[in-house]
Amino acid sequence: MSDIQYRHWISSMGRKSAASVHQLKTLPPTSEAFVENVKRAHFQACIWRSALTGEAPDMDPLENGWVSDDDFGVLMPVTLPPQTEIAPAAVMKLIQCGCSSETPCSTERCGCVAGQMSCSAFCRCRAKIRTCRNRWTLLKQRIEDANDSDEDESNDEDDSDD
Question: How far is CA 42 from CA 17, 56, 66, in A?
């Protein structure tokens, strides 16, 4: 599915002006994004269906396309599983935000924030944690840090077994 969508995007971008190529909203969803969307849609449908019976569904939102953002006290949709590329590297070189304020990427005016994507090294903010205020970049960094600490702990356990 991702390959077909990518080929369609490339062919449709060839017919448009150069300015439209750089818009994040023109990227097609990947197969991984489709799966996460289906999980969230299924979860929502179960909630709506259960509204008729008065009993909440016995489902964990964290296993159905949502992740808990404890800093903000909300559930955030998982648009892509961790460690999944949003698009091929060649496309990502074309996609970037140009935020340059005192608090870059802090509002919906940022193309990455509006597209519910983390910023990348190609963005003006360079996705630096100290400057970029994109909530998706911060969430991605927290997830990567947690995964790194889990790997470090498992490596420590492996080392102690020797």
Answer: 38, 14, 12
Cα(59)–Cα(70) distance, rounded to whole angstroms?
A: 20
Beta bridge partners of 69: 74
Residue 41 has pLDDT above 90, yes or no: yes
The number of beta carbons lying within 10 Å of the beta carbon of residue 119 is 28
Phi/psi-derived region of residue 83, left when phi > 0, alpha when psi is between -120 and 50, beta in every other case: left
Residue 132 burial (C-beta neighbours within 10 Å; 0-12, 13-18, 19+): buried
CA 34 to chain centre: 12
Count the neighbouring beta carbons within 10 Å of the beta carbon of residue 27.
20
pLDDT at 80: 80
Radius of gyration of the chain (CA): 19
Q: Are 99 and 123 in contact (CB under 8 A)?
A: yes
Q: How many CB atoms lie within 10 A of CB 100?
A: 9
pTM > 0.70: no
pLDDT band at 108 (very low <50, low <70, confident <90, very high): confident
